[in-house]
């Protein structure tokens, strides 16, 4: 048992009247002790549920990310390159069809450097994980160590940090999600973690507005000057079509204390129907993704174009969303994305 961890646990777990939030250094210490197994399973479980009940602060998240930076993996910086890091819940999607990977591929094809990260199917949702969708496109990131992933990233402009292999310390905490029956606040880190050593724009999906405020405070404390928040589908960074897409943008040239630039985007204003594509099954989703990569029509295609068009505009590749949509459509119909998938698969196989 760790006496030091017990004191931190007592601080957050003393109830609504005497409980207190951890400061940044304490949060980093608590996260470090959990990642390194210095806290016992009983202590980690107690911390997870107590912290969920209390709710984390932005300062606590900043401290936990400090520990991630100390212990976890990072893809090496590419000189002069700002990567875009897409943060989505690791426990996947269960209701709506995700298009994150297709967005990432279209961005990479347009010359962007894209980092995505995640693990296997996991509690509490047990939704479709990104790693399975990569596999469905013929790309097996599971087989690579971090150095090999770095080589693929440098060659293709896209990299996937696979947590079970690259960050086993964090993967060791995943079973607690099943044991306590809830996603602990530790899971929030997967939305704002940046496993890239260089300059980055972090895109973080969220569901509840208070979560966005925690992101903003954590980013401010850590000096993260460029980030985007998306009230996306099931907490992802996929823009919805059935309601307004609420996006917050923090540009690096603005003061850390400036408010976010707020975007409210409606799919119908850009020629798309107001219907999200349901997730029928993983197998059918992969069939749809494969068809889109081949340049074929699919019910999922409007969601892909809606999202890719936004992100191409957001990253300055296109002057507006409509042009971004057209760039994405042409990249798919002309076989550019199929070629990109083939190049990544070849690079992975050669590593």
CATH fold type of the largest domain:
Pyrimidine Nucleoside Phosphorylase, Chain A, domain 2
What is the top-level CATH class of the largest domain?
A: Alpha Beta
**What's the CATH H-level homologous superfamily of the largest domain?**
Nucleoside phosphorylase/phosphoribosyltransferase catalytic domain
Tell me which CATH architecture of the largest domain applies here. 3-Layer(aba) Sandwich
Which value, in Å, is the CA radius of gyration? 20 Å
Account of the 3D structure:
The protein has 351 residues and is an alpha/beta fold. It has 2 domains: 3-71, Transferase, Pyrimidine Nucleoside Phosphorylase, Chain C (Transferase, Pyrimidine Nucleoside Phosphorylase, Chain A, domain 3), CATH 1.20.970; 83-341, 3-Layer(aba) Sandwich (Pyrimidine Nucleoside Phosphorylase, Chain A, domain 2). The chain is built from 17 helices and 7 strands. It has a 7-stranded mixed sheet with strand order 3-2-1-4-5-6-7, with helices on both faces. Helix 5 crosses helix 13 and helix 6 (100-109) crosses helix 17. The longest helix has 15 residues, at 336-350. The N and C termini lie far apart (42 Å).
């Amino acid at each position: 048992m760790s006496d030091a961890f017990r004191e931190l646990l007592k601080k957050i777990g003393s109830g609504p009247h005497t409980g207190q939030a951890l400061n940044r250094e304490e949060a980093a210490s608590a996260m470090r002790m959990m990642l390194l197994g210095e806290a016992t399973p009983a202590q980690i479980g107690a911390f997870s549920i107590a912290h969920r009940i209390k709710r984390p602060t932005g300062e606590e998240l900043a401290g936990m990310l400090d520990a991630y930076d100390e212990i976890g993996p990072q893809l090496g910086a590419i000189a002069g390159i700002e990567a875009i890091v897409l943060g989505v819940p690791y426990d996947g999607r269960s209701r709506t069809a995700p298009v994150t990977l297709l967005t990432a591929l279209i961005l990479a094809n347009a010359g962007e450097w894209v980092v995505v990260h995640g693990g296997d199917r996991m509690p509490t949702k047990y939704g479709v994980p990104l790693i399975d969708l990569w596999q469905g496109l013929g790309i097996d990131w599971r087989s690579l160590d971090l150095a090999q992933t770095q080589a693929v990233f440098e060659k293709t402009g896209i990299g996937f940090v696979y947590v079970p292999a690259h960050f086993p310390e964090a993967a060791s905490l995943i079973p607690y999600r099943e044991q306590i029956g809830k996603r602990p606040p530790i899971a929030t880190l997967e939305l704002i973690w940046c496993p890239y050593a260089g300059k980055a724009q972090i895109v973080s999906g969220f569901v509840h507005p208070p979560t966005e405020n925690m992101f903003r405070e954590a980013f401010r404390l850590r000096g993260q000057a460029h980030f985007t928040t998306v009230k996306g589908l099931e907490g992802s960074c996929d823009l919805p079509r059935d309601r307004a897409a609420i996006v917050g943008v923090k540009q690096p040239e603005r003061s850390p204390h400036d408010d976010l630039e707020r975007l409210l985007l409606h799919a119908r204003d850009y020629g798309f129907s107001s219907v999200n594509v349901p997730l029928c099954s993983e197998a059918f989703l992969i069939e749809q993704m494969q068809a889109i990569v081949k340049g074929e029509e699919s019910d999922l295609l409007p969601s892909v174009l809606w999202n890719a068009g936004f992100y191409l505009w957001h990253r300055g590749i296109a002057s507006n969303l409509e042009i971004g949509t057209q760039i994405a459509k042409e990249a798919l119909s002309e076989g550019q994305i199929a070629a990109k998938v083939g190049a990544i698969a070849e690079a992975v196989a050669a590593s």
